[in-house]
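Please check the following for our workbook:

***
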Amino acid sequence: MPDNTLRNRGLTIGYVAERTGLSPSAIRFYEEEGLVRPDRNDGGHRRYARSDIRRLSFVMISQGLGFTIAEIREALADLPEHRTPDRRDWARISRRFGRVLDERIARMQALRARLDGCIGCGCLSLKTCALYNPKDKARSRGQGPRYVMGDRSDEI
C-alpha cells in the first residue's frame, strides 16, 4: 500500500504489526485495554494512526520495565486524542515514569545491599536480626521488609 494511501485511510493492523513487532492479537488486546483507539473503515476494518506505532512501542517498553497496563493507560490518557503527540507530550510522560523508575532503582539497590543480612522482615531467624531488629522492633513501622522499604534501624 503506498504511503499516501496509508496516510489518507489509516494504517492496517498488519502494517502496525509489521512496524511494531507485535502480533495482531496483541494489538487488539491493547485496543481492548484502551491503549490505542483505531477508527473503522466502511468495511469495519481497523485503521490506526501513525502515532499508534509510537503508543504501542511505548507500551512494549513500559511493560518491559515492569509498569502495569493500568499505569500505562493512565500515562497515555494525558496524550492528545486529535493530534499526534509532540516532544513536550512525551517529555511529560517521561518525567512521570522517570520518577517511578528512580524509586524502583533505589529500592532494588537497597534490596541488593541488604539481601545477605537483615531486611527488617520480622523473622528473627538470622543472628544479625538480634542486632538490627531486636524483638522485632521494625514491626512498629508496619508490615513487610521495613528496612528495604526505606526505614532505617537507627530510626526505630
